[in-house]
């Protein structure tokens, strides 16, 4: 079928709208009509780094309505309202224990721009187009995806706003609620107050953290963090020594830290702010080749843990419905992070996000 897609054509170039051909779904595939799609920083990293060689269709926070399903699909049916998330195999050693985000075949299923057999779902005339991004490539009117990418959305939830649960929100909230599993009364330092960092603040409040410190240069985001439950905010532009600023609040250091900034110097400063046995979770993408922060002897001496986190350790079938319940109960007001734009304004929306005019962009089809 013909679909309308926003095509990444190379670093530094705007997305171009093109009519492409999308395959019919195979027996294990699902065709979704995209209703809305969030823009995640990873989309920009992949576009600018040409990590899937252009032309390519990115997008991995889709939401929509199932249009048709392959013969072996049982989880969803045409007409179902669905949120889309990352793809996992469902039968490896990690998936078997609920660690879908660390699926043994995560890179192949999500980042290579094609099906695992090398075929493409998308073509521009005869030219193959990179697709299958996170098993969806949802910067398009329609996407081919898989059962494990999909979670049904109850009728009372706004389908237009739900896409970011599938990556940014679950990464932030899950990072604190699942990966770090911060316990009630604990202290947490969050660096970076974008959609992931602010979702982490909401997650920390849900967990009952006693001290929630957010480091973020934009005043409006710091104010929002306070509304979501941050007990302290720090403007890094006015704070030459981040480690000292955190220790001025908690002289013994923080129990947990969560970096969404991807700034090596910030990550380094966080290590100095950890309490003994403190755990530091990292989701911010650093420049290639950046070494692990900290000093090995200090890590050993103080019993520190530095851990990478993907998708907040989410098992989407379990965690996304849990997040939807938290939203319904007013505990996870992620809708307040979102500004919607028409799909046709993808370039303008990304520029607005880049300039800090909005926190989370969601494109409406
Ligand atoms: C990212 C996390 C860093 C590696 C690439 C994928 N996940 C979501 O955006
Ligand atoms: Zn993402």
Brief characterization of the structure:
The protein has 365 residues and is of the alpha/beta class. It has helices at residues 41-48, 93-96, 106-110, 168-179, 195-207, 219-228, 242-249, 264-272, 296-301, 316-328, 346-354, and strands spanning 2-7, 16-22, 29-38, 62-69, 81-84, 122-124, 127-129, 142-146, 150-152, 187-191, 211-215, 232-234, 254-259, 274-282, 305-308, 338-342, 360-364.
Q: Write the CATH homologous superfamily of the largest domain.
A: Medium-chain alcohol dehydrogenases, catalytic domain
**Which architecture of the largest domain per CATH?**
Alpha-Beta Complex
Helical content class: 25-40%
- How many beta-strand segments? 17
Rg, alpha carbons: 20 Å
What fraction strand? 15-25%
Topology as a string of helices (H) and strands (E): EEEHEEHHEEEEHEHEHEHEHEHEHEHE
Mean pLDDT: 98
Distance between the termini: 17 Å
What top-tier CATH class of the largest domain fits best?
Answer: Alpha Beta
**Looking at CATH, which topology of the largest domain would you report?**
Quinone Oxidoreductase, Chain A, domain 1
Please characterize this protein's 3D structure.
With about 375 residues, the chain is an alpha/beta fold. The chain folds into two domains: about 1-165 and about 335-365, Alpha-Beta Complex (Quinone Oxidoreductase, Chain A, domain 1), CATH 3.90.180; about 175-310, 3-Layer(aba) Sandwich (Rossmann fold), CATH 3.40.50. It is built from eleven helices and 17 strands. Strands 3, 4, 5, 8, 9, 16 and 17 form a seven-stranded mixed beta sheet that branches. The longest helix has 13 residues, at about 195-205. It is globular and about 60 Å long. The relative contact order is 0.15. Cyclohexylformamide binds next to loops.
């Amino acid at each position: 079928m013909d679909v309308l897609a926003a095509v990444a054509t190379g670093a530094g170039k705007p997305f171009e709208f093109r009519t492409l051909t999308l395959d019919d779904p195979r027996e294990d595939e699902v065709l979704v009509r995209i209703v809305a799609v969030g823009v995640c920083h990873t989309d920009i990293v992949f576009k600018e780094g040409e990590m899937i060689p252009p032309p390519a269709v990115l997008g991995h926070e889709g939401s929509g309505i199932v249009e048709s399903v392959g013969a072996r699909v049982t989880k969803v049916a045409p007409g179902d309202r669905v949120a889309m998330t990352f793809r996992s195999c469902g039968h490896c050693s990690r998936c078997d224990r609920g660690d879908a985000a660390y699926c043994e075949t995560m890179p192949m299923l999500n980042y290579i721009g094609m099906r695992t057999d090398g075929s493409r779902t998308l073509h521009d005339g005869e030219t193959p187009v990179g697709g299958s991004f996170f098993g969806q490539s949802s910067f398009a009117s329609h996407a081919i995806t898989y059962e494990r990418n999909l979670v049904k959305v109850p009728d009372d939830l706004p389908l237009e706003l739900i896409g970011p649960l599938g990556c940014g929100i679950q990464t932030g909230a899950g990072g604190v609620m699942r990966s770090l599993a911060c316990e009630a009364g604990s202290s947490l330092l969050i660096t970076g107050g974008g959609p992931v960092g602010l979702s982490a603040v909401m997650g920390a409040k849900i967990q009952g953290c006693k001290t929630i410190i957010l480091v973020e240069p934009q005043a409006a985001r710091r104010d929002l963090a306070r509304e979501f439950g941050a007990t302290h905010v720090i403007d890094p532009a006015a704070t030459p020594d981040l480690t000292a600023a955190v220790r001025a609040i908690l002289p013994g250091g923080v129990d947990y830290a969560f970096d969404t900034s991807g700034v090596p110097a910030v990550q380094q400063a966080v290590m100095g702010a950890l309490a003994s046995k403190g755990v530091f979770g990292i989701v911010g993408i650093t420049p290639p080749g950046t070494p692990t922060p900290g000093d090995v002897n200090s890590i050993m001496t103080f019993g520190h843990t530095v851990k990478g986190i993907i998708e907040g350790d989410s098992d989407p079938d379990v965690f996304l419905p849990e997040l939807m319940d938290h939203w319904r109960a007013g505990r996870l007001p992620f809708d307040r992070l979102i500004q919607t734009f028409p799909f046709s304004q993808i370039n303008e929306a990304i520029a607005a996000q880049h300039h800090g005019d909005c926190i989370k962009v969601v494109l409406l089809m």
